[in-house]
């Protein structure tokens, strides 16, 4: 993660917790260069699964819960 103050990429995680009913992770970070603290939210990107058949036709699959 890049620090919003000094743009340094070195940081350490101080605290992690589930957010948005388990769909994302909230992390409290501290920059190792300037010691500023900032919060990041991480979530999984859902990308469609593509199956490419022999005739190079793409079919997209939709996951149903």
Please explain how this structure is put together:
- With 65 residues, the chain is mainly beta.
- The protein has one domain.
- Helix content is 0%, strand content 49%.
- The strands form 2 sheets. A 3-stranded antiparallel beta sheet has the order 1-2-3, with no helix packed on it. Strands 4-5 form a two-stranded antiparallel ribbon.
**Number of DSSP E strands:** 5
- The strand order across the widest sheet is 1-2-3
| Whole-angstrom Rg | 19 Å
Q: Bin the helical content.
A: under 10%
Total of domains: 1
Poorly predicted runs: none
SSE series = EEEEE
- Sheet-strand content, in percent, reads over 45%
Key features of this structure:
three-stranded antiparallel β-sheet; elongated
Outline of the structure:
The protein is mainly β. It has no helices and five strands. It has one domain.
Write the layout of secondary structure elements.
Elements: E1 11-19, E2 24-31, E3 37-43, E4 49-52, E5 58-61
Antiparallel strand pairs: 1-2, 2-3, 4-5
């Amino acid at each position: 993660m890049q620090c919003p103050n000094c743009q340094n990429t070195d940081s350490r995680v101080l605290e992690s917790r589930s957010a948005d009913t388990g769909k994302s992770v909230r992390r409290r970070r501290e920059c190792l260069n300037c010691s500023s603290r900032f919060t990041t939210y991480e979530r999984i990107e859902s990308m469609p699964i593509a199956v490419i058949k022999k005739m190079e036709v793409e079919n997209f699959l939709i996951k149903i819960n």
